User: What shape does this take?
Amino acid sequence: MKRMLPFMLAVVLGSCLVLVGQDVLAAAKEITLPADPTKAYITLGILFIAAVMFFLEVVPLPVTALLVPVALSITKVIPSKVAFGYFGDPTVVLFMAMFIVGEATFVTGFADKVGALAVRFSKGSQLKLIVYTMIAIGLLSTMLSNTGTTVVAVPMVLGMCLKAKLAPGRVLMPVAFASSLGGTATLVGTPPNGIVNGVITGMLEADPTLNLRAFGFFEFAYIGIPLLVMGLAYYALFGYKLLPDRKLDDDADMMMEGKPRRENKMWHSILIFSFVVFMMATELMPLTTAAVLGACLMIISGCMNMREAFRSVDWTTIFLFAGMLSMSAAMDKSGAAAIVASGVVKLVSNPWMLMFVCCALTALITNFMSNTATAALMAPLAMPIAIASGISPLPIIMGIAMSASCCFLTPIATPPNTIVLGPGRYSFMDYIKAGWPLQLLCLVMCVVLIPIIWPFHP
Assistant: This one.
């Protein structure tokens, strides 16, 4: 085992090297309100009903998510082709393929080896296991895509939980949150950081006389690292008590312990897994293409059979993510998000209040809409208001970037949140219970610290 330690660590590290900012939008555009707000109000109504159904779980989460594009299509907010087209979205296909690739590491016993190694480092302490895993994922996410980091880390975390006799729900949510927090530290860690820099660059191209500059690659770390440290301290001291504590026997993943492994295929799965990661990291293949090829190779090589591949896909995650992408599109195309954002932001002029409103509103919208799209909406909306108010837009823009990634109240707030929903066997309310203190702490830190680091009046 000791001889394998450097290799295992290298593979786990390499597995988190993925494409960065694949969905970054061209965000430097004028925010316009719809001439006819009817569809916007219909969209907000559907969103409200969906939110209530999610929280109460009156029907299974995937059913609620599927009803969202149905409602948007029936009310003609967006065409049916658009509403259901997101089930073929590259990110959705990526999730499906990586579920298969991740399952293959279990079937061949590779995830067990990595899990045993992690348990040895933590010396059997569940709290240490949570904190050490958060530190590792958080630090990796500072330089790598937080979505990709979470996708490829999940099977390793599940293997760790299997060896530690620990329900995955005790670890996966903190891992997702740590991934989001770590991603805030650099330009490439999370798409919203690239979005806000794109907005600033666009405005400078339109008016070079503006007293404005883009953020540096590591400049985000001035607030991103404190947020990550705070998140780690929160879970180490208190947050772990709020995580769901379901019995181990109730978790389907733990039933794999008694199943035989195809250990003769372990090196096949390791090589394929490493190949997929290498293709993603070097951009020799698109992210989704590499993942799908890896899934196919896992089956062709005999690491797993078709039945195991079909069963490995967590359909709750797939339907929830794809269904709510249609809501994100409807919020954008109908003008609903613009109406809410502009209506609130334009009511304030005090710089501290503007800072608070922008951060709080960004976090609120992101909990039900793509964080990339929210940053693309809020940044060009808030920047002219800050300039017109005679204050530097940098703290406002940075607050929006951080708030778009620090969202922990719902499983649809960020891709990392969605990725761990199924494997962690979480309910919608689990995110609220474990995430609201962290959400509040992040909001307070952003509002207080960012204007100190980037003053309103430099």
